[in-house]
Model the fold of this input.
Amino acid sequence: MTEKALSDVTILDFSHLLQGPFATQLLADMGANVIKIERPGQGDLFRTMTFNNRWVGGAESPNFLAWNRNKRSLAIDLKAPEAKEILYRIGAKADVVVQNFRPGVLARMGYGYEDFKTINPRIIYCSGSGYGESGPYLSRPGQDMLIQGLTGIAAATGRGDGPPVPVGSGFSDQVGAMNMVYGILSALYWRERSGKGQEIRVDLLTGMLAHQGQEMLMAMNFGVDFKRPNSGIGHPGMEAPFGVYPTSDGWVTIAMSPYTKLVGVLGDDSLLAYNDKTTLFEKRDEIWEKIAALTRTWTTAALMEAMLAVDIWCGEVKTHLQAADDPQVRHMNATTTYEHPRAGTVKVVAPAVKMSETPATIDRPAPMVGEHTAEILAEFGYGRDEIAAFIDKGAVASAG
Done:
């Protein structure tokens, strides 16, 4: 097997739901040894959650399977007397600890940064939260849609004559996961030079603000909020024709392109009366309606062909299933499968980052709760009888 970039990195992963698990999955894809800490019997809360009451293979949550491949599961009762000794032994050899409990929860149990730093001064301890470690929102739940509402992205999305619209994915959590990975890799690199570990704190609130940098800069520096148009304009700060337009059999997107080229394709010179920057912004809803009336007479394929022929920036609007079958997606091998002991063949999105010398691969399915408990404990020096005793006491649990 080709050596992976992070094959010598061990991560003790206390995280659950989306933000932390996506971050550790990205690191696991690059070879990190991720030991996922789960509650005996129950495991990660995402194991019990799904969309539309559908379960992969009739048994497994798509929410959990999406973010937990390439990991091993250690089922352990964090409150058991034996748990601290076990986790401290692992922590003494680990490189990274990741957690996204509410601030202070793990520290009160003896699993905070200072606890692991005492055991292992080189440890990198990454915490994810909704709103940081202090402040007026400390007790609020830090859920993805709530963060989208608080940070302006929902208010900037959707039609002006309708409600604010959250992004149709766990966007805040996924931005948070990327920030975790960014912080962890930076800390690992610095530790190679300094020999020192450190604490990393990532929160969804400031992460989402940072990822709307241009919108926040505009609003703060000019003292004016963006106003959502009533049409399909794709960004509240953009002029026509930037947006989403109907066709006779679907939808297309049109981005930054010379307006006159689009008018030429659509064949209605009366639209040229709007052709200056101020008018294209101030009358964008009116312009959208006129353009949409024309695009509705085209099929998606015919309109795409005509626009691409004159180098207009455009694209089809596809559903998730259509995206999975897109010719470029297939060409890029952007989806793949793995085999799961209960769910069977699971179709997944492949690792997105390509590396020439240390490629990311999927070597393990998402684990069963405690599937690797005995295996992991043996690696850290526990004998068979000791492991059996831990299981008998209920301190740990094993799936097999």
Remarks:
- Residues 171-194 form the longest helix (24 residues).
- The mean pLDDT is 95.
- The chain has 17 helices and twelve strands.
